[in-house]
Amino acid sequence: MAAMDVHNSANEVALKEREENISSTDAVTVVGNRNEHRLRRKSSGGWTAASILLANQGLATLAFFGVGVNLVLFLTRVLGQDNAVAANNVSKWTGTVYMCSLIGAFLSDSYWGRYLTCALFQIIFVSGLLLLSLSSWIFLIKPRGCGNEVIACRPPSPVGIAIFYLSIYLVAFGYGGHQPTIATFGADQFDEEKPKEKTSKEAFFCYFYFALNFGSLFSNTILVYFEDSGEWTLGFLASLGSAVIALVSFLVGTPGYRYIKPCGNPLPRVAQVFVASARKWDVVPANSDELYEVEGPESAIKGSRKILHSDEFDFLDKAATITEEDMLHQSDPWRLCTVTQVEEAKCVLKLLPIWLCTIIYSVVFTQMASLFVEQGNVMSSNLGKFHLPAASMSAFDICSVLICTGIYRQILVPLAGKLSGNPRGLTELQRMGIGLIIGILAMVAAGITEIQRLKHVIPGQKISSLSIFWQIPQYVLVGASEVFMYVGQLEFFNGQAPDGIKSFGSSLCMASISVGNYVSSLLVNMVMKITARNNKPGWIPADLNTGHMDRFYFLIAILTAFDFLIYLFCSNWYKPINLHETEMDKQEDDVLGRA
């Protein structure tokens, strides 16, 4: 009884101190009027605002892939780089694109909010495309029309190369920071506490990935053809025009958006949990009903709902365990944290194993922008007098995504719902697992295609007589795997991330692609160092006809199979976030449901 009195007294004193002394680090902040927030939600957001953001995503993606899809050929034809060097540079650049998503997510969640973050990074994106267009026109495309495999470009000047790299990394920074924020901003247009809007929010991520691929379809067909023909500057200018339209449309929709205020810097909040736990290393964690939490329906984290206690990582519960010494330092969040704050840190830890398992899949995905293009570039691609650019084969990936998205939403979800009893069909984790399996099949298909290509090599010629359409299965399989893996990732990480780090959740999907690109580059370097010894050409030499790229594809397939086994263990171990639903939420849902 005396212990319980100490806990109750400490709770009361700590709560009073916390409410009177708001931490300057924004680690703990009292929430504003929730009713005002809900009233604003009724008159904004919804599918009208979300549709504008989907269009913005499609246009921005068109602009981005107008640069990215043919970048490996620009590096080899215009800048004169070798195949392996160009593939590594594209992997590093693509990795930087998606690594910048973490920067955008941090600024969005902590300080700027989704809207301002989207607007500023789009301005950077437009600036990079403008500089790229000017640098290619003034410095690099000399003579005009070069870089089409017929007319060779002059060696570029150091100034031209420097401006080119500056411009493409501005594009990477702008697009990378914009991506996770626009996805989360779009999801913000739906209130997941309302059953109807929760269903719309789940559908939004599917349509978001649909818009992404629909936008890239133009880049992978029309723009690729002009760039492959030597009209590089024209292609970059078209990308610039698309990005400008995307920015203008985004700004036009400003009055109708639903805005969620930033929740403050999450880094100190998470750090406080680990520091507080370490300072109480010899303390036995209290029972779940005795852990510290503020009273009332709101959590102590600005804009975040309360999170119920979970049993995983129970050593962190020490941070919310009240000791006698805590009674002397009630306003110190580095000694005593709320249950919600502890659970926020736990959520980050629980998401990491799942995220790590998605990296190898991103190695599969990144081959489309590098080795798939180089493979297609040495295959027969003439249809009569018409030359089909190797990079345009990614249109089959896009069409596969568009078709599979429709099949999934209209057929698989209802069918799986009837069989499993889950109205959502397959869970996000199940879909991601299916994506891994299809990714393995895609790499096997790519390896088989390469074996056949090598069998049809004509001595003394660079181009194999095997038709480039042999690549269709590998592109289609990658597209099908994306629908399960990346749409599942977007829903999973956004849905399982606490309210205070929603953009961080969305950015994990992009960060997976980023790290996957770096891992792909590392794999290429390691494979070439091992296989190119004793004057051997290696698996991925400058002349692919003397190499064995098929073995590299099979290596990725084997690594993905091992990754799938680890993923099965991690997905079975994972326990979802459990948010606290107040009585006010339930009553409001009933009223809205009747309305």
Automatic annotation (TrEMBL):
Q: Tell me one GO biological process term.
A: transmembrane transport
UniProt key word Transmembrane helix = yes
For this protein, the record's Gene3D superfamilies field holds:
MFS general substrate transporter like domains
Report TM segments.
47-75, 95-112, 119-139, 159-176, 204-226, 232-252, 351-373, 429-448, 468-487, 508-532, 552-570
InterPro entries associated with the record:
MFS_trans_sf, POT_fam
Entry GO terms, CC: membrane
- Record's bilayer topology term: Multi-pass membrane protein
Q: Name one GO molecular function term.
A: transmembrane transporter activity
Where does this one sit in the cell?
Membrane
Keyword Transmembrane listed? The answer is: yes
Which Pfam families does its entry note?
PTR2
Q: What is its main location?
A: membrane
Annotated signal sequence range: none
Query: PANTHER family given for it?
Result: OLIGOPEPTIDE TRANSPORTER-RELATED (PTHR11654)
Family assignment? Belongs to the major facilitator superfamily. Proton-dependent oligopeptide transporter (POT/PTR) (TC 2.A.17) family.
Per its record, how is this protein called by name?
A: Uncharacterized protein
Question: Which organism does this record belong to?
Answer: Manihot esculenta (Cassava)
